[in-house]
UniProtKB/TrEMBL annotation:
Coiled-coil intervals: none
Family the entry assigns: Belongs to the RelB/DinJ antitoxin family.
Name of the featured protein: Damage-inducible protein J
Keyword Transmembrane helix annotated: no
Cross-referenced InterPro entries: Arc_rbn_hlx_hlx (IPR013321), RelB/DinJ (IPR007337)
Length: 89
């Protein structure tokens, strides 16, 4: 297998943090990037994920929705037609 070198630019702090994680896992950048490229080729897609911790905007929306729910202001529908009628659709 012929090997080549790939160079790319990244933030120094990002590289350092990634190296720390890879070191904890007993891996290096070559192993990680080769695995990632094989997955990219196989699945023909790049997967972007969102953090599991809600950001400030979402936390605020959740609090507001919780207040509405507890105050009884929220309407609940068991029938799609009823909901559409309420919305004027």
């Amino acid at each position: 297998m012929t090997q080549v070198v790939i160079n790319f630019k990244t933030d120094a702090k990002l590289k350092s943090a990634a190296k720390d994680v890879l070191d904890e896992m007993g891996l290096n950048f070559s192993i990680a990037f080769n695995a990632y490229m094989k997955k990219l080729i196989t699945e023909r897609r790049i997967e972007f994920t969102t953090p599991e911790i809600p950001n400030a905007r979402l936390r605020k929306a959740i609090k507001e929705a919780d207040k509405e729910y507890k105050s009884g202001k929220l309407k609940f529908y068991t029938d799609m037609r009823e909901m559409r009628k309420s919305l004027g659709v």
